[in-house]
Amino acid sequence: MHDYDGNYGGMHLIWWIIWMIFIIWIFATPWNIPGQRAKKDSPLDILKKRFAKGEISKEEYEESKKLLKSEN
Description:
The protein is mainly α. 62% of the residues lie in helices and 0% in strands. It has helices at residues 9-28, 43-53, 58-71. Helix 2 runs antiparallel to helix 3 (58-71). The chain starts with 8 loop residues before the first helix and ends with a helix.
């Protein structure tokens, strides 16, 4: 009924192309991987995190915050 010597070979080629497009699409799509930042932190966000961790004092935080807001 269906022989594979060229009568329906074009259909196989189409399926191979569809599968290749599908596989490329899966690997090329940017996924939001847990543990990676979705967006880059702003300088104010970094400052807030440093203050929350205790890396800088309240005075340093307030001074840096004023400086960052004055630059905008």
